Amino acid sequence: MPSSPGYKRNYKKEYANYHSKPKQVKNRTARGAARNKLKKSGIAVAGRDVAHRNGNPRDNRRGNLAVKTVSQNRSYARTRTARKRNPRA
């Protein structure tokens, strides 16, 4: 159990089971491309997150990207309708 005392996370196993999956690699690459796109257009993104307004990390059209603080970008529930209800999106 993760909350029990003395529990040690197995990061190698977590990476193998989740982060190295092809879908996650594609999404991570797309998020990096979004950051680079904003950097090249002269927008400061250091220390902040690049938010995708429609929630799709592969949709890197300039109109779909916004720079937000980490707490703003990661504070909504991850559901299909969360962005529709979230006024900051």
How large is the count of helical segments?
A: 4
Q: Can you count the beta strands?
A: 2
Q: Approximately what portion of the residues adopt beta-strand conformation?
A: 5-15%
Order of helices and strands: HHEEHH
Query: Main beta sheet, described?
Result: 2 strands, antiparallel
Poorly predicted regions: none
Shape verdict: globular
Helix percent band: 40-55%
Structural class: mainly alpha
Total number of distinct structural domains:
1
The largest beta-sheet arranges its strands as: 1-2
Any idea what the radius of gyration is?
A: 16 Å
The separation of the N and C termini measures 34 Å
Mean pLDDT level: 81
Q: Summary?
A:
The chain is mainly α and 89 residues long. The chain has one domain (11-85).
Characterization of the model:
Helix content is 40%, strand content 9%. By secondary structure, it is mostly helical. It has one domain. Strands 1-2 form a two-stranded antiparallel sheet.
